[in-house]
Amino acid sequence: MNKNNKYNILIYLDLVAAILFPVIAVFQVEEYSANIVNGLFLILILAIMTGLLLPNIMVSWLIILLTTIAAGFLVLGYVVIPTEAKWFLVVAFPIEARLLTVLRYYVLDWRFISKNRQGIRNYLKRYNGTLKMHTRYTANKIYSKVISNIKERPQLHLWMHVSMLRWANHEQFAQLHPEEHAQYLEKLADILKKRRLAAEELFYLGDATFFIISPELRDDIIKQINQETIAELKKVQDDLPGGLKWTSQRIDETNVDRFTDPNVIVKHLDRELETDLIVEYLKAEAND
Fold it and tell me: Is this prediction's pTM over 0.85?
């Protein structure tokens, strides 16, 4: 049984109890005097209003206060009322108020959270709050938009560069040193934010992989920015188990049909990163 089913069963049982308890209580005291029946009615009405309208903390304090007062008058004091009726009058408010408080929390508040749960999931799908970067979802959207511009306006000769940075073989380090792993990822993200241009879009794809979209930047500018980025990455590369890998691809009207799908370009860059030549490329670029 999953968690949601358990919640649903508890909510259902609480609802049934909140309905049955007043009925049973009134049925049990109906043979007594009208004052007792009317008093119980008023207590139950007060409990219903309290449980449905007041915050949980106020309900708790009211339950403690009113139950203490009622117990003092009815149980400890000398009041000519049958014992069974006394106990119903004492416990009616705390039981009904608490049942309705729980029901309100899980039906009203929980429903509100459930309505917004999809929005929360969508936000997390689009944005990595730790690295403060957009994710693969947004990367695919922007990449597809740029591809559409290149294909639909061939007379403008539009283009873009896409680059990928990956921390290779980081998985074991992440398992053994999760905090240090997160700190290194933040360092890599900070380097990209610092060295890349404002016109570029930065993304975190997960699995210690960063993705950069650079539209309409000349090849010589991209080369210079890459060199500056790689020089900064070299400062932390020696401290990273597994090291860093980097690759880039220019996309224009000559090869746009090959890379229309964002998943295709990611797989293409993945294959490039798998070769040992990428490590050498990193070193060569940094030394140029």
Answer: no
